Structure formats: C-alpha cells, structure tokens
Amino acid sequence: MKAISEPRRRAILRLIWDDEMSAGQIADSFEVTFGAVSQHLKVLRDAGLVVVRKDGTKRYYRADRAGMGPLASYLESMWVSSLDTLAALAEEAQREEAQRDKAQREKEAEP
C-alpha cells in the first residue's frame, strides 16, 4: 500500500496507534514542519488508515485499526518484531558494558 511506503507515515501511524493526537502534537514528535505532518496525515486519511475528530478549532487523529483489516495485524507484528530486535540489542550492549566494567575493576584491583 502506497500510503505506508513512506517511513515517516509509518512512524506517524505508530504514534497514533493507541492514542489520539493533534497534528501539532504529532509534528512536535518529529523534526519536520507542521505542514509536512499535515500532508502525511492527508495521505493516511485518504487511504482510510486514519480517522479525524474535530474539537473546536483542533483536529485529533488516530489510527483506524478497524478500517485497516489485515493490514493492522501486519503493522502490529512489524512493530513488535522491531521492538524485540531493539530489546535484544539493548540487552547485548548492557552485557558488553558489564563485562567491560568487570574487566576494568579487575585491572584496577591488580597490585
């Protein structure tokens, strides 16, 4: 699907997957302009991936999981897989740091 082929749009979807956010809040989460976020949201909205709720002058966006059908499951599994990989990398880095610290302490303890 072309709407999610752009990494920034996938990141926006992830951001509003569980929570409703205004375009300004979304823009603040990335280093892009409000206008760029607005364009991404329009593409996502036109593709039926995002719903909008108006409240006064503000608009709040959230992912339309029900409207996505099987795509919602695919995106969730992709994000979970990415988080699992990130967690494994963080754990490995922590183990390596602990080994370096232990080696440093042993070296400092030598007479």
From TrEMBL:
SUPFAM superfamilies: Winged helix' DNA-binding domain. Keywords: DNA-binding, Transcription, Transcription regulation. It holds the Pfam family HTH_5. GO terms for molecular function: DNA binding; DNA-binding transcription factor activity. Residues 92-111 are annotated as: Disordered. SMART domains: HTH_ARSR. Residues 1-83 form the HTH arsR-type domain. The keyword Transcription regulation applies. PANTHER family: TRANSCRIPTIONAL REGULATOR, ARSR FAMILY, TRANSCRIPTIONAL REPRESSOR SDPR. This is Helix-turn-helix domain-containing protein. It comes from Streptacidiphilus jiangxiensis.
